[in-house]
Amino acid sequence: MKLFSLKNRAVVMLAALGLVFALNLFSGEVRNFFSAAFSPFQSFFWDLGNASSDFFSGVFRGASSRKENMRLELENLKLQQELISLQDTERENEQLRKALSLGLEKEFHIISSRIVGKDPSEDTLFLDKGSKDGIMPEMAVITPENVAVGRVGEVLESSSRLILLSHPKSSFDAKISQEGTMGLVRGQGRYQALLDLIPQDSKVSPGDTVLSASLGGIFPKNLLIGRVREVKANDTKSFQQASLSLFFDVSKVDLVFVIDEK
Question: 190 CB contacts (<8 Å, ≥6 apart)?
Fold first, then answer.
């Protein structure tokens, strides 16, 4: 079989050489005849070769383009992260400038901290500062605008829990700034709070501003708490109640100050 195959190859090669030799010996008319006869086949295989070449070239260009697009996308993501980091730094600097303009650093020892999470089951947040940063339980927490946020609860080495004013276990003395009327702010949960134990003969109106009173509590005096939303008068009781719209909005603040009175 192998010998037969070699013979076949030899015959084909000799025939091809003979054809080439004959084309060179014969007249131009004969060469033109063979050229015309085989031209369609030659053209077909030429076009097929070009198409294959374009196809594989396109595949390689496509792969190269996808790789380049991936590289550019990664660079874009990196630039976006750097921009976000710069924006966060600028926002934090702006909030620190607000605190300095209020003179908080003269009145309090301030430890800035970021809000890094919240407990969906209750009105508590998580801070990125802990005992190693000087944070201790029961420290008051405010915003750069001098708005009361809550108090520090559990403290770990590098983090701590913030109990919001609206937490059901939160209560502290407060006053209505316009009248000086005293009351007690009680957390109601779900980011709601009310001003309780308002004397029955005191005048309280929606829109009144409520401030911290600092009567033996953890909050310094005159921190902003919220506004009276609705007064709940009751003739059968000695005190009134008023629902509050708290100034602190958990969705709009990411930097807070933990304070300790000097």
Answer: 123, 166
pLDDT of residue 139: 94
Measured distance CA(27)–CA(123) in Å, rounded = 103
Whether 124 and 238 map to the same domain: the answer is yes
- Statement to judge: residues 135 and 9 lie in one domain: no
151, β-bridge pairs = 140, 163
pLDDT at 167 over 50: yes
Question: CATH no. for residue 116?
Answer: 2.40.10.340
pLDDT digits (tens, 9 = 90+) for 78-121: 666 666 555 555 565 565 555 555 566 566 788 989 999 998 88
Of 74, 101, 128, which residue constitutes the final position of a domain? Answer: 101
23 and 58 fall within a common domain: yes
Determine the Cα–Cα distance for residues 175 and 247; give it in Å rounded to an integer: 15
pLDDT, position 3: 46
